[in-house]
Amino acid sequence: MSTKVYFKGNYQKDSIDFEDGLIQVTAFPFVDSLFVREVKPHAHNFFQGFLLEEGITSLEYEENTIEIIAPAFFTIPKNIVHGLTNSEDCRGWIINLSDLFLENILRKDADIVMELDAIHIKHLREGEETEEVIVAMKKIVAEFNQNLPGKSIMLQNLVSILVVGLHRISKKNTHPLNPLHSDNTSKIYFRRFIQLIKTDYTFKKTVESFANDLGISAGHLNRICHQITNNSPKEIISNYFIQEAQKELTSIEKSITQISYQLHCDDPAYFSRLFKKRTGLTPKEYREKHGIKA
């Protein structure tokens, strides 16, 4: 796996102009009006909802390639690396939502936005909530592309309907993050913590530094993480990078030492010890188990 490629805007773009800082809609799969067949793996620092009206797209995510046939929609959370391969007749829209908008919803009902931090793929089925979500997406696209009175208020209402619809669909197919009750403020901090881990992408950063970035104490962050996941912040950080290491180790392109450095762990021996502690195997044994010879 190569180094993560981030775009601050849409694909191949360094910026994005959110309407009132909340939402932006663009045609898919086009960049500057030019059709893009292959969208190489990358990530964004905002949430994306894809409305696929025609054609087929293949979504590449981690080790998976999933074929999505129109009419359908799928969502890509912030900081999730993904790639797309599009058929010549592929047509649709991308609805980009800023973190500011999502956190405004998060303060009212945190569980709704927490569900959006995973990829969801749904094909249209008559009479289900899926149809309602696609209708909401089409209304958002139409409203965004017009300049009517009350546009901002209408967009906020339509996106709220969309987000709630996505939440209801996901609740039918997934379980809550965990059964413990936690207030919305804690969930906001926890979500920001996870996003910081993915964005900073360094094993070196301490729990204290993360807490400082969040504007809370390390003890407060520790309580939040235990309340929501039953794990400490350090365990959450370690688990994330062990999962990243497992992905990298399935490729023969990099040595174990190179992978250690890529994850900003300057001591490969410590990296190997931690990896074995978490997985029961050394990095070398993990590769051998998966039939990879360095």
Description:
Pfam families: HTH_18. This protein is an alpha+beta fold and 294 residues long. The chain contains eleven helices and twelve strands. The two termini are 15 Å apart. Strands 1-5-10-7-8 form a five-stranded mixed β-sheet, with no helix packed on it. Strands 2-11-6-9-12 form a five-stranded antiparallel β-sheet. Helix 3 (129-144) packs antiparallel against helix 4. The protein folds into two domains: 6-173, Sandwich (Jelly Rolls); 184-289, Arc Repressor Mutant, subunit A (Orthogonal Bundle). Strand 3 and strand 4 form a beta hairpin.
Describe, in short, the structure shown.
The chain has 294 residues and is an alpha+beta fold. It contains 11 helices and 12 strands. The chain has 2 domains: 6-173, Jelly Rolls (Sandwich), CATH 2.60.120; 184-289, Arc Repressor Mutant, subunit A (Orthogonal Bundle).
